């Protein structure tokens, strides 16, 4: 069927959304997706490698890019889904999705770019698309979780399939692809495919990602403000040059392994328990969660060894190391190099502190081979900033081009993240606020930052805290669970992605979000409780007029 004749059929096939997009909000609340118009896949080819190849060959608007389709699967049941996930190794691909054609496209163009695009095109979609930002390879799990919203969904590979730390991709062109170009070209390819497939221009475009994917999201809205309308970035590694040196700093902060100043990993949980003992009540509620690590006065002496306590305690040189861990890293002039690790992140220190293991960015991107802690100097960081290969730092603080075309940016970060410091997100938000102020823009209407108490890097929480860290939305849902819990996803305050959609399409800037936790973190149907999280710099405070396990009894206040 040609694209032209498809148009006539499409106009006669406008149909209502299926009952699957059900909404259960109190009367008066926005629930745009209920009864939403959906569009049929009027021009869809047979979902085979051959059918898809013929289709992409004819997709207009790609200016002579070469597209190849290495594989395609039609998924109409959980059985075919298994076949597909086995093939692409996507362990958390969500089950119970609408029928989709799943395929990969490899693209190249004359400028030397190359990109891999994963596509999940349902037989009906509601006019909007979602991209899973590149992290390592194609994030099929995240893309699959976006199908819940009746979107056509995609994933980009940032130009290479292997994780970033596996070297081999860092050619000059590979660096540009990784920095921003592969995602941009994946986006243009996706939009052209959608237009040809459904005979309708994509209406709204969304993107989500965490960590390296969070950097890609930020780079996208900074470099190509027209690509997306709604962007969600978690724990972004936006400050690559400084992030990389901080990772080395973390590995060596206590000096040589087993020196008298190094803190053995066996003490991390003991430090974490003491932090919890002191900082938990300081936020106003003893609930095993450190909610205001920035405001905690921590007395590290409580951990000191003495004549009666000689084990499970810290010596004087170790206490000095601890002091360094909890302090911002700055130059002699007090310019910030990288923000400190926050109280309440100790449970993950075994992945970040100690164990010198090098840095792929310093070795393979900056090309400083056999880098060791002894080589670390301020001059080297300044040199890295000056070079910033392929300008991978997402450090443009002026988001006005994105704001002015109606773009909305939802930024989130866990307070218990020791991999990417939450302070790096605060720093970016502050700088972006100053840049917006200069242009007379009210930043809260366009960009909000949510710091989530007790959340580690992108997902998870320390065992001793059991904090509420789940904010739903495709990133967390698709990356960590293989299904989306229906009881969290149908309501826009409980699903951060619906919040973003309502913000973009309805102009409703959120005033808070809700996080959730579960009895059993591997089973998201076992909902335990909910709590408000607040747009920075506001913080959640229990009203004491009802249970602390329900979001209604929390306020967002300036502390
Ligand atoms: C969706 O349709 C049902 C049945 O017609 C109606 O009761 C409901 O109010 C509609 N929802 C919205 C958001 O328009
Ligand atoms: C799909 O495949 C069938 C059987 O091979 C063929 O008859 C049909 O023309 C194909 N349709 C499209 C749209 O390519
Ligand atoms: C093709 O060219 C048009 C016009 O210059 C441009 O807007 C579009 O982004 C290009 N598309 C790709 C995939 O390069
Ligand atoms: C094309 O896709 C396949 C995966 O099916 C991948 O192994 C291959 O490296 C890709 N080629 C390019 C140039 O990206
Ligand atoms: C697929 O699996 C989900 C979750 O396990 C289940 O709810 C659903 O009924 C299954 N769908 C089909 C078509 O078997
Ligand atoms: C598509 O669905 C989302 C939520 O699932 C909704 O907010 C949006 O309005 C829908 N878009 C269209 C064009 O119907
Ligand atoms: C720690 O080790 C250094 C170097 O070996 C030594 O000079 C210092 O006295 C030691 N400090 C303590 C408190 O043991
Ligand atoms: C020694 O340290 C432990 C805890 O580390 C503390 O409970 C105890 O009071 C201290 N004893 C003295 C004599 O300071
Ligand atoms: C780090 O510590 C946590 C909490 O004690 C534990 O669950 C995890 O397995 C440890 N990870 C490594 C790499 O040692
Ligand atoms: C780095 O170290 C490896 C072995 O440790 C050595 O073979 C190599 O020559 C070194 N490279 C440079 C550039 O010093
Ligand atoms: C938090 O709420 C409680 C109860 O309403 C109130 O007493 C307290 O002052 C609030 N905390 C702050 C920092 O405003
Ligand atoms: Ca607390």
What would you say about this model in short?
With 559 residues, the protein is an alpha/beta fold.
Please give a handful of descriptors for the protein shown.
559 residues; alpha/beta; 16 helices; globular; disordered N terminus; binds 2-acetamido-2-deoxy-beta-D-glucopyranose; binds calcium ion; hydrolase; metal-binding; Tannase/feruloyl_esterase; calcium
What can you tell me about this protein's structure?
The chain contains 16 helices and 18 strands. The radius of gyration is 24 Å and the shape is globular. The protein has 559 residues and is α/β, with parallel strands linked by helices. The protein has 3 domains: 43-201, no CATH class; 204-238 and 394-559, no CATH class; 243-390, no CATH class. The chain binds 2-acetamido-2-deoxy-beta-D-glucopyranose (11 copies) and calcium ion. One 2-acetamido-2-deoxy-beta-D-glucopyranose (NAG) is lined by residues 369-370.
SSE arrangement:
Layout: H1 3-12, E1 15-16, E2 37-40, H2 49-58, E3 66-75, H3 78-88, E4 100-108, E5 114-122, E6 124-125, E7 129-132, H4 140-145, E8 152-156, H5 172-198, E9 205-210, H6 212-223, E10 230-234, H7 240-252, H8 268-282, H9 316-325, E11 329-330, E12 336-338, H10 360-365, H11 378-387, H12 400-404, E13 408-414, H13 422-438, E14 447-452, H14 473-480, H15 486-489, H16 496-506, E15 513-518, E16 527-533, E17 539-542, E18 554-557
Parallel strand pairs: 7-8, 7-9, 9-10, 10-13, 13-14
Antiparallel strand pairs: 1-2, 2-6, 3-4, 4-5, 5-8, 11-12, 15-16, 17-18
Helix pairs in contact: 5-6
């Amino acid at each position: 069927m040609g694209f032209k004749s498809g148009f006539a059929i499409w106009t006669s096939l406008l149909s209502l959304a299926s009952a699957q997009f059900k909404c259960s909000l109190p009367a008066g609340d926005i629930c745009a997706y209920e009864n939403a118009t959906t569009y049929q896949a009027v021009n869809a080819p047979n979902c085979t490698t051959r059918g898809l190849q013929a289709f992409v060959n004819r997709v207009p608007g790609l200016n002579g890019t070469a597209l190849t389709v290495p594989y395609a699967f039609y998924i109409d049941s959980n059985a075919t889904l298994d076949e597909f996930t086995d093939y692409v190794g996507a362990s958390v691909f969500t089950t119970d999705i609408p029928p989709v054609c799943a395929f990969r496209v490899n693209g190249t163009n004359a400028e030397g770019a190359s990109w891999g695009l994963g596509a999940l095109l349902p037989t009906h979609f509601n006019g909007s698309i979602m991209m899973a930002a590149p992290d390592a390879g194609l994030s099929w799990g995240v893309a699959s979780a976006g199908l819940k919203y009746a979107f056509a969904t995609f994933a980009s590979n940032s130009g290479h399939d292997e994780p970033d730390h596996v070297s081999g991709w860092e050619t000059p062109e590979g660096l540009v692809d990784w920095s921003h170009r592969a995602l941009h070209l994946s986006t243009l390819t996706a939009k052209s495919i959608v237009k040809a497939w459904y005979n309708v221009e994509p209406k709204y475009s969304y993107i989500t990602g965490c960590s390296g994917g969070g950097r890609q999201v930020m780079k996208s809205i900074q470099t190509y403000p027209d690509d997306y309308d709604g962007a969600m970035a978690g724990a972004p590694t936006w400050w690559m040059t400084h992030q990389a040196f901080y990772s080395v700093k973390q590995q060596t902060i206590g000096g040589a392994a087993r020196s008298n100043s190094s803190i053995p990993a066996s003490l991390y949980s003991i430090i974490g328990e003491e932090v919890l003992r002191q900082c938990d009540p300081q936020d106003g509620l003893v609930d095993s969660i450190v909610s205001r690590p920035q405001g905690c006065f921590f007395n590290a002496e409580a951990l000191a060894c003495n004549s009666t306590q000689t084990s499970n305690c810290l010596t004087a040189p170790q206490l000095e190391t601890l002091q360094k861990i909890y302090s911002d890293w700055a130059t002699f002039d007090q310019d910030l190099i990288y923000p400190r690790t926050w109280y309440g992140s100790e449970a993950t220190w075994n992945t970040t502190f100690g164990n010198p293991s090098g840095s792929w960015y310093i070795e393979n991107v900056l090309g400083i081979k056999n880098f060791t802690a002894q080589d670390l100097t301020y001059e080297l960081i300044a040199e890295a900033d000056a070079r910033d290969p392929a300008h991978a730092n997402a450090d443009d603080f002026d988001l006005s081009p994105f704001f002015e075309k109606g773009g909305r940016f939802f930024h989130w970060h866990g307070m218990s993240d020791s991999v990417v410091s939450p302070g790096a997100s605060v720093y970016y938000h502050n700088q972006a606020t100053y840049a917006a102020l200069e242009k007379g823009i009210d930043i809260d209407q366009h960009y909000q930052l949510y710091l989530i108490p007790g959340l580690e890097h992108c997902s998870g929480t320390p065992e001793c805290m059991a904090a509420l860290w789940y904010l739903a939305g495709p990133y967390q849902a698709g990356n960590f669970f293989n299904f989306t819990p229906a009881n969290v996803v149908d309501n826009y305050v409980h699903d951060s992605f619906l919040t973003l959609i309502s913000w973009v399409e309805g102009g409703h800037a959120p005033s808070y979000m809700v996080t959730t936790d579960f009895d059993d973190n591997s089973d998201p149907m076992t909902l335990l409780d909910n709590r408000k999280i607040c747009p920075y710099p506001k913080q959640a405070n229990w009203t004491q007029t009802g249970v602390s396990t329900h979001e209604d009894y929390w306020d967002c206040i300036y502390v």
